[in-house]
Write a structure and sequence with these properties.
339 residues; 88% helix; globular
Length: 339
């Protein structure tokens, strides 16, 4: 048995190495972003690659075929959607003063009303709504341009993903070799459960959000609402946030329509309501199949916590991260009970 002083030195050395590693990773966090994006891309493409392998393609060729398909999809998106979206963003930035003027006119009209004690309350709420709308749009634009600013990380991540997919089994076995054979089985079981939870989220929420975004944008186009591409994008991204997302995306669409007329806002609201009914009663039950196994209260808590810590990105990542932590917490609890 090792002396107590020797154990203390070993623990001290281990903690020092861990803290130094964390500090080093913090310093190179921009590099880690590239590896993280590469790992996410590899995870998303590994199953389609395996499917093509079963059809007779070698893994390298299967990866290249998938890359060509993804590249063609991105080319269509950037050549058709992005230029129009940039134009809409500039147009919206140009009419923001008009929205502010409308809000001020509404505040003046309230000033002329005899509402007694309600007048200052309504005026204050109007100011808060105006400020929240401006802050929300500013955060969205800032996040959009920040995302584009990570171009190098986005450019190198497919290269890293190629090597990760090609050596998937080697990387997996190297990781598992860090643990004892008995512990290895537990790690495999936990990773499989985490994989099931993430796939459930991806196959469900991403497909459903795409449906909501496309049809909301199409509805805005048919009704003649301004900025249909932007409306569809925000509706799709917002729909990734359970419970609150549908309301947030629909509110933005109705608000833009309201800037033209009350009648157009009413039509847009009916269109959003119809899309949400189709999504919740027809699309979601067919696509989701199994559930994440998370109570609604846990999901709401995860969303609020994620929004508090990381803003919109925290809310988007809250559900898959909470599902992963739930699996890990269950495994740790079982280990504690068994020991």
């Amino acid at each position: 048995m090792l002396p107590a002083s020797s154990k203390i030195y070993r623990y001290f050395f281990f903690i020092t190495v861990v803290l130094a590693s964390i500090y080093f990773l913090f310093l190179v966090r921009e590099v880690l972003l590239t590896f993280f994006l590469g790992a996410v891309l590899a995870y998303l493409l590994f199953r389609p690659t395996s499917f093509l392998e079963k059809k007779g393609l070698k893994r390298v060729w299967a990866i290249l075929v998938l890359y060509l398909v993804v590249l063609a999809a991105f080319f269509l998106f950037f050549s058709l959607a992005v230029p129009a979206m940039v134009v809409e963003l500039h147009q919206m930035a140009g009419i923001l003063p008009d929205y502010a003027e409308q809000a001020r006119d509404m505040a003046k009209s309230i000033d002329g009303m005899e509402l007694g004690k309600l007048t200052p309350i309504l005026k204050e709420n109007l100011k808060q709504i105006e400020n929240k709308l401006f802050e929300g749009l500013k955060d969205f634009l800032g996040g959009f341009y920040s995302f584009l600013g990570k171009f190098l990380a986005l450019a190198f991540s497919p290269i890293l993903a190629f090597y990760i997919i090609n050596d998937w089994e080697k990387i997996r076995d190297a990781f598992l070799s860090l643990f004892s054979p008995s512990f290895r089985r537990d790690i495999k079981a936990v990773l499989e459960k985490i994989d099931e939870a993430l796939i459930e989220f991806l196959k469900g929420h991403l497909i459903i959000a795409t449906f909501v975004g496309i049809f909301t944008g199409v509805a805005a186009t048919l009704l003649g609402v301004k900025f249909p591409l932007l409306i569809g994008l925000i509706a799709g991204v917002a729909d990734l946030v359970p419970y609150f997302g549908a309301f947030l995306g629909g509110f933005f669409a109705i608000f833009i329509a309201l800037s033209d007329s009350m009648q157009l806002a009413l039509y847009m609201g009916l269109a959003v309501l119809l899309i949400q009914q189709v999504e919740s009663n027809i699309i979601t039950p067919r696509i989701m199949g199994g559930k994440l196994g998370m109570h609604p209260l846990l999901i709401v808590f995860a969303l609020l916590a994620g929004g508090k810590l990381m803003g919109i990105w925290g809310m988007l990542l809250a559900v898959p991260l909470a599902a992963t932590l739930k699996v890990l917490a269950q495994w740790v609890f079982l280990k504690m009970v068994e020991s």
